[in-house]
TrEMBL record:
This is MFS transporter. It is found in: Cell membrane. Residues 16-413 form the Major facilitator superfamily (MFS) profile domain. It is a multi-pass membrane protein. Keywords: Membrane, Transmembrane, Transmembrane helix, Transport. InterPro entries: MFS, MFS_dom, MFS_Na/Anion_cotransporter, MFS_trans_sf, Sugar_transporter_CS. Gene3D superfamilies: MFS general substrate transporter like domains (1.20.1250.20). Its main location: membrane. Pfam families: MFS_1.
């Protein structure tokens, strides 16, 4: 276990927490940077870009991200985390620079797709590093810290984009230059901190040797009947709905506030960032509560999903900016990042004991597919109706419907 001891005065697993959290911050600053400045992007490209086309910027990114999940996970196991992560972030940085030089929407699409491909290297690498290096007794809280990086990055991305581009009237490309700089910094940090494949293999072999005496379970494959049982399928549907609402909001909320609710300048980014920042205490609070009352996880999931849907409804219906901001804060506190750890924990307990990784892979695929659909669909609705309100209503309906299906199948299980 020597190679897992301290480096530079800080334990390696603590360095991994800081590094992976920072990685999510960097990724989400990029993800959140473009949506507040869609009008400026449109203007720079001639002013004839539809909302459907603008929403497709995010869809191209998430499409690249989704299709990389399985290949990246396979490569992480075969050639190592560092070997996958470094080229991925190099592609990510080049993609941000490509977008900054874009003279057409198709060029932005190409850059967004490549950015998704590059970012697709991160999830599998980060998950493997945290699961292999963080002590078991600290894993839940440490994982929550790592995941909070996405909320911090999303919030800062919206604020910086609104302030730099809208408030200070700087070119929207400035955010892409900033993103590229941060990505390069993270790539250097990965190269310096993450141990080499040789060290990694040595550590994993030492772990395997230590656990060999206590584990004697046969390796089996999960069957399709268990992977897509009604209970599992409705859980995937619930997660799809949860992610749909979140990614629709992350993509279109800044534009909605600016074009339909009269918010201006940095107020757009600040108000939108409330969702991200409020999610951090929500995730930590409800995860601890669900761990304390483990037999009530279904109840926690259902209540949080319904309340999140209600807050989205208030967001759309509110004519007063104060009520709207309160609803946004509560949606962040109660929404995806708060309920997601509980759903994943419940899934781990109820999925087949063999093939949990496969189940989680299918689970994540369903969730991330919503991130491809939601931005473009909401843009299409905006083009057809002149408003994005119906996009919010669709998200609300999906949340309620998914929650009802999840509750129904689990109520029957409990009754039996």
């Amino acid at each position: 276990m020597e190679i897992n001891k301290e480096r530079g005065g800080l334990a390696y697993w603590k360095q991994i927490i800081i590094l992976m959290c920072s990685g999510w911050v960097t990724i989400w600053i990029y993800r959140a940077a473009l949506s507040p400045v869609y009008p400026q992007i449109n203007e720079s490209l001639g002013g004839n870009i539809s909302d459907t086309a603008l929403g497709s910027i995010a869809s191209f990114y998430f499409f690249g991200y989704v299709i990389m999940q399985i290949p990246a996970g396979f490569l992480v196991d075969k050639i190592g985390k560092k070997t996958v992560l470094l080229p991925g972030f190099v592609v990510f940085a080049l993609a941000a620079l490509l977008i900054s030089q874009a003279s057409s929407i198709s060029m932005i699409y190409t850059g967004s797709f490549l950015a998704g491909i590059g970012c697709g290297s991160f999830y599998g690498s980060a998950y493997s590093l945290t699961s292999q290096n963080i002590p078991k007794e600290k894993k839940s809280f440490s994982t929550a810290i790592v995941n909070s990086g996405s909320a911090v990055g999303s919030g800062f991305g919206m604020i910086l984009s609104s302030f730099i581009v809208i408030q200070m009237n700087m070119p929207w490309q400035t955010m892409m230059y900033l993103s590229a700089f941060l990505i390069v910094c993270m790539t250097i940090a990965f190269a310096l901190v993450i141990r080499s494949n040789k060290e990694d293999v040595a550590f994993l072999e030492s772990q395997a040797a230590a656990e060999e005496e206590t584990t004697d379970q046969p390796k089996e494959k999960v069957s399709l009947s268990t992977l897509f049982s009604l209970r599992m399928l409705f859980t995937y549907v619930l997660y799809f709905a949860t992610c749909y609402a979140y990614y629709m909001t992350v993509t279109w909320l800044p534009n909605f506030l600016g074009t339909e609710r009269g918010f201006q300048g940095v107020a757009i980014g600040f108000s939108s960032s409330l969702v991200a920042f409020a999610s951090i205490p929500g995730a930590l609070f409800f995860s601890r509560l669900a761990d304390k009352y483990m037999h009530k996880k279904v109840t926690f999931i259902v209540i949080l999903e319904i309340l999140a849907a209600l807050m989205l409804l208030v967001t759309v219906q509110a004519t007063n900016s104060t009520f709207l901001m309160i609803a946004l804060i509560l949606y962040g506190f109660l929404g995806k990042l708060a309920v997601e750890p509980i759903i994943i924990s419940w899934l781990g307990e109820n999925a087949p004991k063999v093939g949990v990784g496969t189940t989680l892979g299918v689970f994540n695929f369903f969730g991330m597919m919503s991130s491809v659909i939601a931005p473009t669909l909401t843009g299409s609705i905006s083009d057809a109706t002149g408003s994005k309100v119906m996009g919010f209503y669709i998200a609300i309906i999906l949340l309620i419907g998914g929650t009802f299906l999840f509750l129904t199948v689990n109520s029957k299980k409990t009754a039996k």
